[in-house]
Amino acid sequence: MAKTNPGRFFEDYRIGEVIHHAVPRTVGAGERALYHALYPARHALYSSDEFAKGCGLPESPLDDLAAFHVVFGKTVPDVSLNAVANLGYAEGRWLRPVYAGDTLHSASEVIGLKQNSNGKTGVVYVRTTGTNQRGEPVMDYVRWVMVRKNDLEAPAPEVVVPELNAVIPAEDLVIPEGLDFSRYDFQLAGEPHRWGDYEIGEVIDHVDGVTIEEAEHMIATRLWQNTAKVHFDATFRPDGQRLIYGGHVISMARALSFNGLANAQMIVGLNGGAHANPCFSGLTVKAWSEVLDKAETEVPGVGLVRLRLVATSDGSVGAVKGEDGKYLSGVLLDLDYWAVMPV
Amino acid sequence: MAKTNPGRFFEDYRIGEVIHHAVPRTVGAGERALYHALYPARHALYSSDEFAKGCGLPESPLDDLAAFHVVFGKTVPDVSLNAVANLGYAEGRWLRPVYAGDTLHSASEVIGLKQNSNGKTGVVYVRTTGTNQRGEPVMDYVRWVMVRKNDLEAPAPEVVVPELNAVIPAEDLVIPEGLDFSRYDFQLAGEPHRWGDYEIGEVIDHVDGVTIEEAEHMIATRLWQNTAKVHFDATFRPDGQRLIYGGHVISMARALSFNGLANAQMIVGLNGGAHANPCFSGLTVKAWSEVLDKAETEVPGVGLVRLRLVATSDGSVGAVKGEDGKYLSGVLLDLDYWAVMPV
Amino acid sequence: MAKTNPGRFFEDYRIGEVIHHAVPRTVGAGERALYHALYPARHALYSSDEFAKGCGLPESPLDDLAAFHVVFGKTVPDVSLNAVANLGYAEGRWLRPVYAGDTLHSASEVIGLKQNSNGKTGVVYVRTTGTNQRGEPVMDYVRWVMVRKNDLEAPAPEVVVPELNAVIPAEDLVIPEGLDFSRYDFQLAGEPHRWGDYEIGEVIDHVDGVTIEEAEHMIATRLWQNTAKVHFDATFRPDGQRLIYGGHVISMARALSFNGLANAQMIVGLNGGAHANPCFSGLTVKAWSEVLDKAETEVPGVGLVRLRLVATSDGSVGAVKGEDGKYLSGVLLDLDYWAVMPV
Predict the structure, then answer these.
(1) CA Rg, chain A, in Å?
(2) Handedness of CA C170, C174, C177, C181 (dihedral sign)
């Protein structure tokens, strides 16, 4: 009997089923340093324990995206091993910071199923929750993927498509307990621009770029225990290229966005995202952002900005789709998220 | 007077001599994270402090192979700087887990010497012991290497060839104190297969592959303070290639073996191993295992499996040697080890 | 209004001005492990907490050069973003070891200004001080760079050129509090050569070499939050090459110097340094040292050696400049520093 994991096929999912993903992971000082080594991450709240204390937190948490990568990585063997396409994200919320010594676990509930008309694939919707060693949720998000059927004769399940918010309402976002930006130090943070300085519709070119290396994306992707073959095995794709984990591009673009958004300190919501074009080693990733919305909170000194973060391989700024409604070839990522910013 | 280390030559070794290797090393959260970043390591006992506690340990230890690499790395300047061939390993036993904050030190006793008939080289056998800061042994193993003579006129020493076990008897293996698999969580560990599910002779194709990068093998090899020139200096070999540290291939193959052997949690014995062919960057390492033996223990829930772990550069499975008795060109590593597994 | 940092131009600096650089940084076990992974670092004081305790310190500090890189990295956005040349270093002193958990902050005082005769650029001298979370200085150094003017009409400032020591007098160096080499373990440190064994004028070829990889220098440079475009973006220079951060070469050469200078344990002074030729990936860095001076101290067992550390890309030893007084093309680095050594 085969001992290796064949992954799940479309007909293996049942609405309401909860999948407890394997291999919990303790994170700490090493993951924090590696995050700063792999991405040009400079947001002060994640760089300095002292700065974090000044914002009401006990110490610097693990970068929000690192927490996402760890939670996401665990789902790969159960959700996307036989996926043919990663279709979308929605309703991602960070619910509690992750600190050194925390152990993360992921579980996914199947919340939607829809077989495609070709009878060979179907779309699976899961809501994934990451929890810490005390059973407290640290984040949840919805993801949907197109998965192959193994048994083409398996009957199509009843169609269930979840209703998802295109944008998480600001009042549903969770600001970390204790956060307080009323004594925020703009000089140490690196930029003077506060919440009131950003206008809806404003576009920010983050200027800097990083050329992607095979060793770096593999080190990052392994660190999150995402072991999808396509990222590591140059013999897997016919063209001999290793496809770069989309999360590597997300983290790279977010880190680059420091230059212009140094005070967009914590990510609290992920409204959606598309990996517009595949990324390969040798490309130079640059990024720009657009302010999509703003909201106030009742937390001292804390405002919310909704940002579009676009990563490119051609340095273009401002445009994402062509007249045909398709992503331009130089666009790698189109992400829509909420962050907290000092008012 | 030259201040740099010329290494030892064959005539410099004496039977019974104990060499205390330099540069003790404190390991911690950084080494743990880097191990997960450099190898697709997913064994739950090393990934999650909570899982390790559920198995009776105080926290996740450093990966057994990382401990081996640290202990081994220290021996290089004294044992293999002038080696022309790494001939074998035997009787390797892990005696105590290594935890964050431990400081490792290595010492080697010369247990065998045999000059070759050409008078230019000889074989040196050492038993190396790694100890922690309390002087407790954490592992020991025998290694033999062929070393050059510097002074060809030096007399041949009396021939001493140690008798070594081809396989460590199961009763000589040390199960870490406190280990208890009676409440082992197979779901969190990632696979349902227990000790009773594996049959002697069974072959497992671990399916996944990783293409080797220069930066990755150098980062790994340096981390263990193994500074043999041939791994780092592209001008050293006539072909301009950097030879990859054999231990990098061992760790890569062991990590890949998670897929099918997720419950072979801890390595407790190294019966032998051969680096069948040299490994260079650009090759894609895959792995397969064969169950060679099984044994029971008196520790709650803990069984032993003896595994052959084979790493390949061509994805082949099942064959290691040709009709001529030589290793096939696609075989990189042929390792024989004991691991603990929940019954 | 542009939100990104345009950097400072020559006319933006004022004598006596103190610039508090952004993004303090907490360092720890991860940075320590990464330093050992990126450089062949083996000095025992930084490798083993036990060895450091034996020398009177509470535990292994962060490598002196890592502390320098962190302090230096913070200055880049304010000092060298519009620099056209990095002209020199002087009077660098390590004032206090940096331990895991420390948070570093940098500030620079403008101590010199001199507009060039072309009216387009000028030289800026700053004295940078790194402090920990208790406000204690951990190091300071002078650096001068040539910076572009943005407004060519801006009036030239009064010329102020600081008087700098070509060599820091030994009595001005700070030996870490508590350091005591009277029970120094030469065997564990890796070499028997003590302070008395080195002669002024002695040249040591460190023999080993490391071929530079893009992924490695970028990982290192990012870790210190040095985000100068030229190190990361292959589209930035017309030749498509990424210029390697000079500090990467410094750390590589210093780590290589273990072989022959294993007991030059801590760096306490930086007299000066020149990045003689640019370094690019693919080059193989080797190093040699010359003993420039020696001094005694009143600290038990501790002597001082002044060393010239030269990194090369061609393996040459002993010569740095040609008859024309210019650096030879194979010289990458010419550094002059003070280190402590057991007497």
Answers:
(1) 20
(2) negative
| Single-letter residue type at B262 | A
C104 three-state secondary structure: strand
Same domain membership, residue A135 and residue A106: yes
Question: Do A206 and C5 make contact, defined as CB atoms within 8 angstroms?
Answer: no
Q: Name the residue range of residue C105's domain.
A: 1-27+62-164
Length reported for chain A: 343
Q: Using a CB-CB distance cutoff of 8 angstroms, which residues of chain A are in contact with residue C29?
A: 28-30, 33
Q: What is the tally of structural domains in chain C?
A: 2
pLDDT (tens digit per residue) in A299-318: 999 999 999 999 999 999 99
pLDDT score for B81? 87
| Tokens of residue A252, six digits | 């790279």
pLDDT given at position C5: 85
CA–CA gap between residue C128 and residue B8 (Å, rounded): 46
Domain annotation covers residue C117 = yes
Q: Check A34 against C30: CB less than 8 A apart.
A: yes
CA dist., res. A172 & res. A94, Å (int): 11
How many beta carbons lie within 10 A of that of residue A187, not counting itself?
11
> What is the rounded CA–CA span in Å between residue C216 and residue C240?
18
Mean pLDDT across chain B, nearest whole number?
97
Per DSSP, chain C holds a count of helices (H) and strands (E) of: 8, 11
Q: What are the tokens at B118? A: 């050409």
Burial (Cβ within 10 Å: 0-12, 13-18, ≥19) of residue C194: middle
Q: Could you give the CA distance from residue C2 to residue C341 in angstroms, rounded to a whole number? A: 51
Alpha carbon distance, N-terminus to C-terminus of chain A? 61
Does residue A196 sit at the C interface (CB-CB below 8 Å)?
Answer: no
Task: Write down the residue that tokens 């919340």 correspond to.
Answer: A111
Q: Are C147 and C121 in contact (CB under 8 A)?
A: yes
